[in-house]
Amino acid sequence: MTGAPNTIDDRSVPDDRLCATPEDDRPSVPEIESALARIVDDADFDASPRNREFLRFVVSETLSGRGERIKAYAIAVEVFHRDGDFDPQADPIVRIEAGRLRRSLERYYMLGGRDDTIRIDIPKGGYVPVFSRPEGSAAALADGGQHDETAPEADDAGKAVRRPGPGTHRWPWRHAVTFAAGVALAAGLLFLFVGAPGQSQIRLQEARTVPAAAAPPTIMVLPFQAESGDEAEIVFAQGLTEEVHVNLMRFGEIRVLEATAAGGDPMTLAADLDADYLLRGSVTRHDSSIAIRMRLIGVESAAGLWGDSFVVPYDVESLLSVIDETASSIASTIAQPYGIVFHDHQRMVLSAGETPLSGFLCLVLAYDYRARISADGNHAAFACLNRATVLESQNAEAWAMLALVDLDVSRFRFPVPEGLAGEPLAAAASAAQQAVAVNPFSALAQHALSEVRFFEGDLPAALEAGERAVALNPNNADYLAMLGLRLVITGSLDRGMRLVDQAMVLNPAPPGWYHFAPALFHLAHDDPSRALASALHINMPAFYLDRLLLASLHGLLGHDAVASALLAEVDTLYPTFFDCPRSDLAFRNIDPALIDRLLRGFEAAGRRLPDTEAPCAI
Hints:
Blueprint: H1 29-40, H2 49-63, H3 72-78, H4 93-110, E1 119-121, E2 130-132, H5 138-142, E3 152-154, E4 160-162, H6 180-186, E5 201-205, E6 218-221, E7 225-226, H7 231-249, E8 255-260, H8 266-272, E9 277-286, E10 289-298, E11 304-313, H9 319-335, H10 340-352, H11 359-371, H12 375-391, H13 396-411, H14 424-438, H15 443-455, H16 459-472, H17 477-489, H18 493-506, H19 516-524, H20 528-535, H21 544-556, H22 560-573, H23 581-587, H24 592-604
Parallel strand pairs: 6-8, 6-9, 7-9
Antiparallel strand pairs: 1-2, 3-4, 5-8, 9-10, 10-11
Helix pairs in contact: 1-2, 2-4, 4-6, 7-9, 10-11, 11-12, 11-13, 12-13, 13-14, 13-15, 14-15, 15-16, 16-17, 17-18, 17-19, 18-19, 19-20, 20-21, 21-22, 21-24, 23-24
């Protein structure tokens, strides 16, 4: 490769702006070279071969004193072998690959490189790397951890960008939504390395080992085809393929195969690799737009399970966001808990009428229960998951779902299932902590921890873990909806409803509990008519909170007979609720003003409330 010498003189880094540490603690060239070699050889650095070359090139140029030469044009010509007439405004290849390289670096430093003493970063807005000693490293601690921000760096457009100091590389989880892509990659989202032309290389990404006969569903993703062979079309197709793969991998319950340049019949290849589903698609560029077509096919049946086609705008400046949004939509439709794949597996499991034998099949059963909350469903899900976590002790998703099922016993006042030892909330906390210990990057584990902390009364920890779950998998509508519901009932009405609205876009046919949030939102705004219209969609007649909310709303609207009948159902489902109604609702962290409105509805329906609730054991 021209312009990138194989050896670098043993001298200090030539430009103060390239170091995010004080001058007397500046990493030396040998240290940086050693750090670079360690990164590109580490399995946790999941960059493609050309992006490894990308990193070598920019580091080499910087250490050789040619940092000012590191522009999109030089990288395109030297690394990606573009012609001399390359135009970075017309061809976004460098920007796209730089984004992937940054994510690969973030992933590396959260996994294999978390203890590295030298850190290499490529700040957004340019391609010149910075070198720093992370806080917590031996050298940084010896220096007292004091670091300065570096000077601004101009990108190709001349825009000044301030380089972050090493302190910004810590990951404060309360801001994790901002960094969703990088954090999600840290959860184990690995790209397929590009092989030689004509070869098909497949890599299976697994978070755990499960019995082969009942393994989680496996999807093989074929590269999206660029129909005309136009260069921009090819770049879009490659980017969309990788982003679909990444977004699918955010769903820890699903395994993903990705093939490049696959030869032969794809269905035969998918069958040989025991894939359950094959996703294939194509893109066609039309001037200022790109048409996308895709199909999801069942490998065993060869039946088409889902297909879609749509047109997105083609604009170089917004290309990355278009690819991200498109891939997110595709992955959510296919892989979310109530999406195409889960629905297909749920149908097979429930129609078979057999006792599930694996953690994944227990998850399918549990998701079915959570769509229609009931005591019987809770007990069936608990029995299955309790067994699964013994057989698969490293299955983080099974532990997390067990935590949620245990928690339901406490928060929904279900009879304690046989085999649940101790207090249900304590059992839920233990299972959630085990899920996080097994896999701290499991979005379901963080979601379960959020719910447990919420009912323990630790709202800051609950919301932090909830945001962490959304950051790890922003395509899971359940995590968005539950975080939104928690915000609504604690009084953050507008922000909560924005999240629930996003969840309903991702899942246009959601389970009934999603509608608690808009019902309570409208009740908080003193609009019981609109609240009732939303609450009627909950449709969980075996769930006392559904009956309670409907009874209160009908009471407020003067529908006395309907409200009275609903209160009678509550008496059957939860006979002691009206001994301590305010205490029970407060246990759910419902905003006091909202509790007052609910209680007024009960009184309007003719239910006499206790003058005092002390002592009330909730």
